[in-house]
């Protein structure tokens, strides 16, 4: 897509960051009105500011930035999963905010290509900030044309959390590392009235776990091909789908997983109604202390003949970045001050210490108050990393894949139908 930004073009770029949500109080129209053209006002659009992990630290950082820059006002606009849609509405009216804090996924994949945001590589280098960023993060945020879409900021580890106390209660002696062990553990847990693996089968958390399990028999290149093209017909992809169906129909996942959301998943694990969850860093940081004390993190169990030699996890450096809009270019001096402040080691350390966030930036700070986040960081060679498909899935297929995920988690859906649902998500979009 190389044409100028148009309503038809950018609204076709995808259907949302995750499952459809009701617009919050800040609608697209109010955002257009709120985008301040005052050269002394920096307008930042973010998902941080309410209950999102890291919000208190972010708001405190904004207050500190304002005090250090008394001549520069900062207006903070907040949206949730609909941020991309709201931003696009404002951009169509040329009233977009100056800086956008959002992840690289779905609609945002097309922003730099259609001129909704700008290539920031020159700014990163010109401001001397390249060495602050992990090389893996720079690679992940760089598109096929060598453009850096945004300044990387938040990252995440995405291991599997195991409630050791619940496993012990059910008579499970060790963390399962194979599919057979996981099935056996699930049966014992169910016998004690404990849900085995809780998962948001009706939203992005289920999509990610499904992708992780499918990759059991795929190399990274094979996984990249499958999620870029929607071709799940290879031997490895079919083997991964078969493995998923075997686990599902053996009762590994919580009852009615196809209707669960990420919030319900988190609640089930944190209240000890379920023993196992696929938990990114922000979810690990929310595990109550009394549960975290007897929780271990590891990888997803493997099947015989897997392409990996260790249980798998997901990891990404594209959770949140700072995107610069065309309006932001007009206030680039203010944007530079803001980004230098957010990249400062002290600011980065606060997010790690206070919010348990993993960062795409270099830092020696450890999440001492968030032991599960720190434990996930230490997994290292004990696990194998599989591909997070977000940057490879065409934006138009992102939301249909959520629907396909719910279908896949429905007990009794055959492997053939799971594959058909996944491939149809690409064709129907």
From TrEMBL:
<dbReference type="InterPro" id="IPR006059">
    <property type="entry name" value="SBP"/>
</dbReference>
<dbReference type="InterPro" id="IPR006311">
    <property type="entry name" value="TAT_signal"/>
</dbReference>
<dbReference type="Pfam" id="PF01547">
    <property type="entry name" value="SBP_bac_1"/>
</dbReference>
<protein>
    <submittedName>
        <fullName>Secreted solute-binding lipoprotein</fullName>
    </submittedName>
</protein>
<keyword id="KW-0449">Lipoprotein</keyword>
<dbReference type="InterPro" id="IPR050490">
    <property type="entry name" value="Bact_solute-bd_prot1"/>
</dbReference>
<feature type="signal peptide">
    <location>
        <begin position="1"/>
        <end position="34"/>
    </location>
</feature>
<keyword id="KW-0732">Signal</keyword>
């Amino acid at each position: 897509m190389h044409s100028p930004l148009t309503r038809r073009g950018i609204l076709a770029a995808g259907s949302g960051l995750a499952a459809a949500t009701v617009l919050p109080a800040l609608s697209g129209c109010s955002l257009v009105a709120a985008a301040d053209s005052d050269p002394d006002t920096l307008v930042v659009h973010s998902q941080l500011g309410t209950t999102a992990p890291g919000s208190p630290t972010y708001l405190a950082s904004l207050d500190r930035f304002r005090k250090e820059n008394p001549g520069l006002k900062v207006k903070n606009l907040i949206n949730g999963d609909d941020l991309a849609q709201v931003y696009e509405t404002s951009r169509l009216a040329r009233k977009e905010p100056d800086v956008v804090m959002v992840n690289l996924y779905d609609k945002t994949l097309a922003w730099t290509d259609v001129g909704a945001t700008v290539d920031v590589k020159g700014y990163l280098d010109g401001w001397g900030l390249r060495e602050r960023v992990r090389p893996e993060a720079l690679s992940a945020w760089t598109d096929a044309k060598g453009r850096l879409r945004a300044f990387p900021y938040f990252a995440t580890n995405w291991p599997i959390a195991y409630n050791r106390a619940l496993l012990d209660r059910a008579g499970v002696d060790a963390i399962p590392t194979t599919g057979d062990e996981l099935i056996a553990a699930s049966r014992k847990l169910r016998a004690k009235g404990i849900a085995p693996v809780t998962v948001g089968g009706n939203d992005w958390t289920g999509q990610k776990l499904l992708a992780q399990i499918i990759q059991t028999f795929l190399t990274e290149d094979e996984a990249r091909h499958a999620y870029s093209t929607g071709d799940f017909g290879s031997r490895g992809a079919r083997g991964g789908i078969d493995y998923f169906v075997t686990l599902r129909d053996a009762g590994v996942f919580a009852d009615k997983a196809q209707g669960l959301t990420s919030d319900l998943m988190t609640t089930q694990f944190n209240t000890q109604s379920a023993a196992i969850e696929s938990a990114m860093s922000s979810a690990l940081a929310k595990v109550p202390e009394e549960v975290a004390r007897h929780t271990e993190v590891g990888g997803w169990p493997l099947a015989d003949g897997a392409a990996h030699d260790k249980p798998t996890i997901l990891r990404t450096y594209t959770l949140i970045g700072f995107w610069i809009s065309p309006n932001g270019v007009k206030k680039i001096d203010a944007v530079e001050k803001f980004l230098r402040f957010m990249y400062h080691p002290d600011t980065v350390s606060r997010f790690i210490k206070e919010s348990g966030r993993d960062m795409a930036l270099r830092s020696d700070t450890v999440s001492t108050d968030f032991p599960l986040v720190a434990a996930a960081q230490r997994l290292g060679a004990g696990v194998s990393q599989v591909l997070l498909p977000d940057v490879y899935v065409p934006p138009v297929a992102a939301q249909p894949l959520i629907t396909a995920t719910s279908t896949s988690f429905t007990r009794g859906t055959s492997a053939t139908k799971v594959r058909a649902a996944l491939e149809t998500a690409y064709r129907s979009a």
